[in-house]
Amino acid sequence: MSSTHDRSTRYQKGSLTLPGTVMLGTGVMIGAGIFALTGQMAQMTGVLFPLAFLAAAVIVSFSAYSYIKISNAYPSAGGIGMYLHKAYGNRLPTAFNALLMYFSMVIAQSFLARTFGSYTMQLFDGDESGRMVPILGVSLILAAFMINLLGNRMIQGVASFIGILKIGGILVFGLVGIWIADSVSVDFSSPGEAGTFGNFLGATALGILAFKGFTTITNSGSEVIDPKRNVGRAIIISIAACVVIYTLVGFAVASNLSLAEIIKTQDYSLAAAARPALGDYGVWFTVAIAMMATAGGILASIFAVSRMLAMLTEMKLVPHSHFGMPGSIQKHTLVYTVVLGLILTAFFDLSRIAALGIIFYLIMDIAIHWGVLRYLREDVKANVWVPTVAIVLDLLALGGFVWVKLNTDLFVIGVAVVTMIVIAVAEQLFLKKATEAEEAGHKESHAHHH
Question: CATH for 14-445?
Answer without folding.
Answer: 1.20.1740.10
